[in-house]
Amino acid sequence: MEARNNNDNDNALWVFGYGSLCWHPGFEYRKSALGYVKGFSRKFWQGNTTHRGTPEKPGRVATLVEERESIVYGRAFQVQDSTALPYLERREGTLGGYTTTISTFYSREGVRNFPVIIYIATNKSEHWLGDAPLHSIAMQIAESSGPSGHNVEYLLRLAEFMHRYLPEAHDEHLFTLELLVRSRIKEENMCLNTLMGNREFHIDLEDTGIDVRDEENNLAGNNAGNNLRENSFQYILQVPDTTLRCLKK
């Protein structure tokens, strides 16, 4: 079925999330929808020194790179009030080094399409790291951490969101990095529970429920988890967050 514009969305403001916004928007929204944008590919080419890394040891986070025949799956949010955009401008723009562009969002069921704002990083960003061998990117992710948590958590939560909620997404870059990072965690005997952080995230795609804690300030301190594919997407952590490696029995 050919997608068509929904009149209810003509005057609505939507933001497309393809990274941490998928599981942790951090702002109030009226509703969300799963789907994709065309003409882009998701790449871990943007450096990060404020959320998932430090100036001395930057992490790597996702951006979109123009690629004519590609599509990127994610989650669109209908903005509820005037606080969302200033929040996003700080989180994604000031702290993350992203700029905005406009694209068309297509719902996964193929019956709707509408304009969305996308935060995207380019090689003009001060945090830009660019392309690199995937094993090098995986190593950097496995070794980086920042105020919002470990870089591993960012990668794995994004991959697991796609596996669970958008299984039709075929993202070779993302899923190859997931496998490489998981292999490195196993080889180095790193504690996955600790890397995933001491907190929980609730994802409910059917209602307007929100989690308004700032990404940059959402540090460990709540219940977290170790089962990456629970329906509730909650994580229950039982290992102290000061330990970065699991002890062998």
From TrEMBL:
Reaction(s) catalysed (UniProt annotation): glutathione = L-cysteinylglycine + 5-oxo-L-proline
Cellular component terms per the entry's GO annotation: cytoplasm
GO biological process, one term: glutathione catabolic process
CDD domains: GGCT_like
GO molecular function, one term: glutathione specific gamma-glutamylcyclotransferase activity
Keyword field: Lyase
Source organism superkingdom: Eukaryota
Enzyme Commission number(s): 4.3.2.7
InterPro entries: ChaC (IPR006840), GGCT-like (IPR013024), GGCT-like_sf (IPR036568)
UniProt keyword tRNA-binding, yes or no: no
Stated family: Belongs to the gamma-glutamylcyclotransferase family. ChaC subfamily.
Protein name from the UniProt record: glutathione-specific gamma-glutamylcyclotransferase
